[in-house]
Write a structure and sequence with these properties.
- The structure is a homodimer of 355-residue chains.
- Chain A has 11 helices and 17 strands.
- Chain A folds into 3 domains: 85 residues, 3-Layer(aba) Sandwich (Rossmann fold); 61 residues, ATP-grasp fold, A domain (Dna Ligase, domain 1), CATH 3.30.1490.20; 165 residues, D-amino Acid Aminotransferase, Chain A, domain 1 (2-Layer Sandwich), CATH 3.30.470.20.
- The first copy, chain A, is α+β, with helices and mostly antiparallel strands.
- Helix content of chain A is 29%, strand content 28%.
- The first copy, chain A, is globular, with a radius of gyration of 20 Å.
Chain lengths: 355, 355
């Protein structure tokens, strides 16, 4: 058995956004302190962390000092610069480990990894030149999506290609980045599984949630998802397969398309996931605590749901609805303490109890 | 309608213990920041607060600066020095207001206040001299309890008097403090109600919990309490009466004895209360968020319970059981990040879901 971290141990978190904020709160429930590393001033996680380092990922001295001050390091986003990871990894254990980041940071590597596990992904092709794209479109066909291999999120860095004109325009915009072309999947719904694996290899998944997107950003997650029992089992089993294949430690979000031919993996995220926020009001042990438990050597929660939940993101000015929303006593409110309610910015979310 | 505090507003908290810690976490969910004022270094609340002032309650400059930096002030304990309150109150709104503190800081004033509301308390007498005590014991009788009027908590500053010898010994120990003599109540159980009132006069109570003490310290609270429907209603109504009489804003804990002649009030606490910790895993909106909602002009939660709960305090070395307790996935763990597991020290609590 792994030796659990002692009371008062310090969890280092790379990234100070809302995911870091909610990880810090979960860590506090377990008697841990947190140290957040974030380049921007006054990030959401800093309001609830014991220590904050405000420094760039290029600041090797700040990174070393940060790594020496903590007992384990985790992260709230996957695009951590490789050089920064080299530095902290040499000093302190980083969980989930490097291989998971490497896999999920690059859409091509991720798809190859999943295909090698005999899991299904959308038809795809590696695109390095215009010629690659012309050839690939013949196989993948219209409509398809051209995506950058790296740094895409919430619909950024991707273009839908319905015809030759779209193809030319997309290539003009993305030709400087390595890309993949993905066939557009004809799916009936999107679901996601929040899975966890700890240092002893214990694997636990929360029930799949059903996701709706709006303008490329997650809008709602509903629990339970309206899927069959066998789809539920398939989703959980394939998540376990991915976690084990990566020898993963922590929480992972797996986004899946439900199609008439079965489940197909859209993408994996090696971190707590927006579609797992419902667990805060649906479970005794939520995804944030589950992640902290995994990386600190504690046993995992069992993912049991005591309530059905509808999670809704508050994007941009939607956060102003909170005055009205707060009158609904079945609604758990979670705001991120961000100053500017900019368009498209995730400002908070609510979990409405459905039963 | 009261205007709610804006996102990013700062809640000042006098006291940095576990109650302040859990208030700070609740405030963060609502997008508020917190500033904790606490004389001791590295208090539990500092791990999850945005700002911390480490200064004595006699440091008038630090108090003024603290009061100027926040949008509203609350507290996590009732024995705040009067002079300190004078200073911060002159600069910033303090909620709950002074009158509630004045009433609950002094057992005699509290009992007179409750008696004037036609509520029942144990037989009591004001004790200033040995002669007072000799006379009072004739009326109140053996066994009774001699308690200091101020600064008592968790069984501290009180002595049980079963006979003349106890009487002499107790007086020798407490004669330098103003005291009250209380008749020992023959109760079948102790319950408590966590009530809340906001700035618009809205009153909401959580269901009564049933409390067990061990060595003068709360050991468990069980929800629901095993009481009749009419006792339940009585408990909630009298709590509302107290809240309204004080024009109270915030959460209050009301401890009650259930006797064959009805309910009797043991004491009131003008703050979030240990016997309300079950709400963290039993309700969408817990007592900590309820308190922050009340003092920040938000609507209150309705106190609805989605799960039955057994709350157990982890005292001193009991916190070491957490390695075992964490294997029970129906258990919500809440640790306070305290370094030394001293005897009698509250180190954390667990909420076990019972249904």
């Amino acid at each position: 058995m792994t030796k659990p971290l002692k009371q008062g141990a310090v969890i280092g978190i790379l990234g100070g956004g809302q995911l870091g904020r909610m990880l810090a709160v979960a860590a506090s429930r377990m008697g841990f302190r947190t140290h957040v590393f974030e380049p921007q001033e006054n990030p959401p996680a800093s309001h609830v962390s014991d220590l904050v380092t405000t420094a760039a990922y290029e600041d090797t001295e700040a990174l070393s000092k940060f790594a020496r001050s903590v007992d384990v390091i985790t992260f709230e986003f996957e695009n951590i610069p490789s050089e920064a990871l080299n530095i902290v990894e040499a000093i302190c254990n980083v969980l989930p480990a490097r291989n998971a980041l490497k896999t999920s940071q690059d859409r091509l590597i991720e798809k190859e990894f999943l295909t090698n596990l005999n899991l299904t992904v959308a038809p795809y092709a590696n695109i390095e030149t215009e010629e690659d794209l012309t050839q690939a479109i013949k196989i993948v066909g219209f409509p398809s999506i051209l995506k950058t291999r790296r740094f895409g999120y919430d619909g950024k860095g991707q273009f839908k290609i319905k015809n030759e004109t779209d193809l030319k325009n997309s290539w003009a915009k993305l030709k400087n980045s390595p890309c993949v072309l993905e066939g557009l999947v004809n799916f009936t719904k999107e679901i996601s599984v929040i899975g966890a694996r700890n240092q002893d290899g214990e694997v636990v998944c929360f029930d799949p949630g059903e996701n709706l997107h709006r303008d490329g950003i997650l809008h709602t997650t509903t629990l339970p998802a309206n899927i069959s029992a066998s789809q539920n089992i398939d989703a959980v089993l394939l998540t376990g397969k991915i976690l084990n294949a990566l020898n993963y430690v922590g929480v992972m979000g797996v986004e899946l398309f439900v199609t008439k031919d079965g489940l197909l993996i859209n993408e994996i995220a090696p971190r707590v996931h927006n579609s797992g926020h419902w667990t805060q009001n649906g479970c005794v042990i939520d995804q944030f605590e589950q992640h902290i438990r995994a990386i600190s050597g504690w046993p995992l929660g069992d993912g049991k749901r005591h309530s059905n939940v509808l999670m809704t993101n508050l994007i941009g000015s939607e956060v102003l609805d909170v005055e009205t929303l707060s009158r609904d006593t079945d609604v758990g409110i979670h705001l991120y303490g961000k100053a500017d309610a900019k368009d498209g910015r995730k400002m908070g979310h609510i979990n409405k109890i459905l039963n």
